[in-house]
């Protein structure tokens, strides 16, 4: 009987550890910005800049990053370092987005959350 209790207790501990580990959110934090022309075509090679909005509520940490759109017309910003610096209590960030392609420029805004991918589309003017 004593051996059965030990085995049962060991099984309980192992399952408990497994459940605790499965509750951790391991999804990456990212911002994906699609850039489209006025005629709705995806734009390759556009410069996309995100700037943390320090005046937002809740405040966003100061953060600036620049990426060029790929051949599919979008730029991906990995936000893992930002959310690690922001801490667990600051799981939301607001970012201003500036897109430049040739002589054209457009602006937008995106809201990002830790462990999710935020998606926004910015349209360039004619």
Number of helices: 2
Mean pLDDT: 89
Outline the biggest β-sheet.
4 strands, antiparallel
Give the strand order of the largest sheet, numbering strands 1, 2, ... along the chain: 3-2-5-6
Give a verbal description of the structure.
This protein has 126 residues and is of the alpha+beta class. The protein has one domain: Carboxypeptidase-like, regulatory domain (Immunoglobulin-like, Sandwich), CATH 2.60.40.1120. Helices cover 22% and strands 40% of the residues. The chain is built from two helices and seven strands; from the N terminus they run H-E-E-E-E-H-E-E-E. The strands form two sheets. It has a four-stranded antiparallel sheet with strand order 3-2-5-6, with no helix packed on it. Strand 5 and strand 6 form a beta hairpin. The radius of gyration is 21 Å and the shape is elongated. The chain starts with a helix and ends with a strand.
């Amino acid at each position: 009987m004593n051996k059965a209790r030990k085995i049962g207790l060991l099984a309980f501990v192992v399952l408990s550890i497994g459940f605790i580990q499965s509750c951790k959110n391991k999804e990456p934090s990212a911002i994906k910005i699609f850039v489209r022309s006025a005629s709705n075509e995806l734009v390759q090679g556009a410069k996309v800049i995100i700037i943390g909005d320090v005046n937002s509520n809740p405040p966003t940490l100061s953060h600036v990053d620049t990426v060029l759109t790929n051949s599919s017309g979008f730029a991906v910003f990995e936000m893992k370092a930002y959310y690690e610096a922001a801490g667990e209590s600051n799981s939301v960030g607001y970012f201003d987005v500036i897109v430049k392609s040739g002589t054209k420029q457009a602006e937008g805004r995106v809201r990002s959350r830790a462990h999710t991918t935020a998606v926004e589309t910015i349209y360039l003017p004619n």
